[in-house]
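The protein record reproduced below.
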Amino acid sequence: MPVDLVQIPKPHDINQITCNTIAELVHSDSDDLPNPSVVSPCQKHDTASFNSLSAKLNWPGFSILHANVRSLKQNLEPLTILLSKLNHPLHFIAITETKIKKDTGLHFVPNIPGYSFSHSDTQYAAGGVTIYTKDNISYVVRHDLSEILTEAESLWLEVILNGKNTVISVIYRHPAPHYDSFTKELENILHNLNDSKVTYYICRDFNKFAAT
């Protein structure tokens, strides 16, 4: 099933959109992790050119937007304005670096009209992840998968799309050592999902090393 991945590169590029069309995500019976097949190159668009492209291609399937916003509170309004300018439906909006902290919790209203809100907060100054899901899509939060991935902040939602169990995930890994431990945990999750014949899509921001 085709899926459109739409990404905002940086907060100051809130009116710029980078998009890929992923044709297929294949489950692998081998020990290798599955790789998506990208049928169009990554391209940057403003809202007008993106809307023109969307109308021309008439993309089927569903769409996921991923944005690293570096503070959801600060950038929620421009994000919402951007969404209002798009003529392409977005079924899931994955956010990294929400900066919603465990010790303070939500101190603002994070609503985007037409979407439900799920999040995993952070204990650090940066980090935190969120997924906005279109109101007409039912989902279950897979806390069991987040608990496996101790080396990152993550959120995993299981939904039924076209009659198939599908997992939508967003992952943020802080700059830190021990990257191998993180990849092993992630491999365990993906092999588990493969064994269960679950299709999955991951929006991610993986920082490999701590800043020096």
About this structure: Confidence is low (pLDDT under 50) at residues 22-40. The longest strand covers residues 16-25.
